[in-house]
Amino acid sequence: MREMIKVALPKGRLYPMAAAAFARVSLGCPELLNPMRKLTYTDAEGGMEYLFVKPGDVPAYVEYGAADMGVTGKDTLLEEGRDLSEAMDMGFGRCRVVVAGLCGQKGRYDGIYGKRIATKYPNIAKRFFESVKGESVEVIRLSGSIELAPLAGLADAVIDLVDTGETLRENGMEVYETVAAVSARLVVNGVSMKMKGRRVKEIIARLGGGQ
User: What is the pLDDT of residues 126-135, one digit of tens each?
Assistant: First the structure.
């Protein structure tokens, strides 16, 4: 019987591509593409067990060994800063973490001392402004509708994830600068890499991240 490998897959926008990647290389089966309301799925023949979790929870499942590996966005890894081995760039889910604000207000924004920045990425925001920009800012943590903050006067700008930028444009906002380019990454638990190294490396290679 093959050694079982647990994989944490993110629900939401990354799920279809992550599931297809594992199913395509015969590490899963068709059920992966339509998990319904299941929280787990076991491919006994392939020696794989899949856990379907919120994207932001993937790093915790992998770090603490509840999963041997998982797929999550680089933005989540930058924000969480967990002790994980980043095995490969999955090549999908590409977007940017940016600083954005009201259109035509970049000059005013640049001149503000002690800016207020709204974001769901407080750690990324603090690190970017302190380490990269050399500025002290007030970070306001929000969990949704980040674009509303400058419109309502809550913040001078936001740090958020953008793909096409259409949502920003629809709300009279524009990108001021890019903080980081991100994409989906495969992360591996350090102990699993040592104890199940052969199987882990085999999976990485079949996903396209090794020879």
Answer: 999 999 999 9
- Determine the Cα–Cα distance for residues 104 and 114; give it in Å rounded to an integer: 20
Query: 178 near 128, Cβ under 8 Å?
Result: no
Query: From residue 25, how far is each of 93, 172, 202, 204, 205 by CA, in Å?
Result: 19, 43, 11, 10, 10
What are the backbone dihedrals phi and psi of residue 85, each rounded to the nearest 5 degrees, phi first? -95, 120
Cα–chain center distance at 174: 22
Percentage of the chain surpassing pLDDT 90? 75
Burial (0-12, 13-18, 19+ Cβ within 10 Å), 117: buried
